[in-house]
Amino acid sequence: MDTLARVGTVVFDKTGTLTRGEFEVTSVHPDDFDETELLHLAAHVEHFSTHPIGEALRTAFPNEATHGCKITDVEEIAGHGIRANVSGCTVCVGNSKMMDAIGVKWNNCHSIGTIIHVAVDGKYVGHVVINDRLKDDSAQAVKSLKRLGVDHMVMLTGDRKEVAFDVAKKLGLDTCYAELMPADKVRYVEQLLATKTENKTLAFVGDGINDAPVLKRADIGIAMGGLGSDAAIEAADVVLMTDEPSRVVDAIKISKKTMTIVKQNIIFAISIKLIVLILSAIGISNMWQAVFADVGVSILAILNALRALYLSLIHIS
Ligand code: ADP
Ligand code: MG
Predict the structure, then answer these.
(1) Are the beta carbons of 232 and 216 closer than 8 angstroms?
(2) pLDDT at site 317
(3) Which ligand is nearest to the CA of 155?
(4) Ligand 1 centroid – CA 81 distance (Å)
(5) What is the pLDDT of residues 271-314, one digit of tens each?
(6) What end-to-end distance do the CA atoms of the chain give, in Å?
(7) 86 lines ligand 1 (CB under 6 A)
C-alpha cells in the first residue's frame, strides 16, 4: 500500500495489458505458397501456445486439432516466436527477428498490424497480418493516472515499432520502446528505476506473457489476473481480476486513502498518549484519562481504520 501510494512512474506492457490480446487475422500474404496450407502449418505450430497470437492463428484455421498431422519438438522462443516439427517439416512462426535469427530472408509488409512470418524447412513461405484492439478503458486509465500524479508513463512491447507507436500515440503515453526481448524489458525497467525521482516508486503492469521477470523487478508488479499466466500472478504484488487498466487507478486511490488513515491514526494515538503521559507525570491526570489514552485511543483508531473497508466497497463493485 505504501509503495503503491507513492507511484510516480507506470510502465505498461502492450499486448494483453493495454490491448485486448484478442488478435484477429486480417490478411494472409503467401510467398509462392498455398494460402490455406500456410494457415494450416501456422495453426499446427501454435497448437500448444498460450500466447494471444497463437490463439489467433489457431482460430484462423478451424478444425486444426482434428487435422491429424503429427506435431513434435515444439519450442516457444519468447519475444521471437515458435518452432515445431509438423509431419516431418520444421516450421518456424514468428517475427522478423526470428527470421533473421534462422537466416531466412523475409518480405516487408505495409499493412498496419503485427506481422507473423512463416518459414518451412528454412524457406520463406509468407506472412500473416493480425490486429489487436485497444481495451475500452485504456485511454481513460492513462488520463486518470496523470491526474493522480503519475508523471511518467512508458510502454514496453515486443511488437513492431509501427504498431507500438500507433498505440502509444492514441493513448497519450510519454515514452514507448518497441521490438524488445523479455530481457530488454528488464533492462529498460532497471534503467527507469535508476533514474526515477527519489521517494517515488515504479509500477509495472503486464499480463505476464513474456514479462514475468519485469513484474518481479519493479517496485510494484501489477498483473492481469484473467488473461495473465500463473507465473504472472505468482510474480505480481497486485492482481487485477477483471483485466481492466482502469483498475490500476482504483488500486492507487485505495492505497493513497488507506495511507492517509494510517497516518491519521499514528499521529492521533501518539499525541494523546504523549499528552496524558506528560499530564500524569506532573500529577494532573487521573486513572480514567490514562485508560482512555490507552484502550480508548486504540478503539478510536480501529473505528477510523474501518473506513478503509468502505473505501474498498466503493471502488471494488
Ligand atoms: P508484448 O511485449 O507486446 O506483450 P510479446 O513479448 O509477448 O509482446 O511478443 C513479442 C513478439 O514476439 C510478438 O509481437 C510476436 O511477433 C512474437 N511472438 C511471441 N510469441 C509468439 C508466438 N507464439 N507465435 C508467433 N509469434 C510470437
Ligand atoms: Mg504481453
Answers:
(1) no
(2) 53
(3) 1
(4) 6
(5) 999 999 999 999 898 899 999 999 999 999 999 999 888 877 77
(6) 20
(7) no
Whether residue 62 contacts residue 112, with contact meaning beta carbons closer than 8 Å, is answered with: no
3-state class of 29 per DSSP? strand
| Residue 234 CA to its chain's centroid (Å) | 13
Identify any residues that bridge with 72 across adjacent strands, giving them in sequence order: 85
User: 55, 134, 135, 157: which to mutate for ligand 1, most atoms within 8 A of CB?
Assistant: 157
Kindly list the protein residues that place their beta carbon closer than 5 angstroms to ligand 2, a single-atom ion: 13, 15-16, 207, 209
Report which protein residue has its CA nearest ligand 1's atom 20: 81
How confident is the model over 250-276, as pLDDT tens digits?
999 999 999 999 999 999 999 999 999
Catalytic-residue membership of 13: yes
Give the ligand with the smallest distance to the CA of 208: 2
Task: Supply φ then ψ for residue 102, to 5 degrees.
Answer: -95, 5
pLDDT tens digits, 172-208: 999 999 999 989 999 999 999 999 988 999 999 998 7
- Please give the number of the atom of ligand 1 that sits closest to the Cα of 51: 23
- Full-model pTM: 0.82
At position 107, the amino acid (one-letter code) is N
* Ligand 1 neighbourhood includes 265 CB (under 6 angstroms): no
Closest CA to 133 of 117, 119, 113: 113
Judge residue 88's burial from the number of C-beta atoms within 10 Å of its C-beta, 0-12 exposed, 13-18 middle, 19 or more buried. Answer: exposed
**Helices (H), ranges, the chain:** 2-5, 35-45, 52-60, 96-101, 138-147, 161-171, 182-195, 212-217, 230-235, 246-281, 287-291, 297-305, 307-315
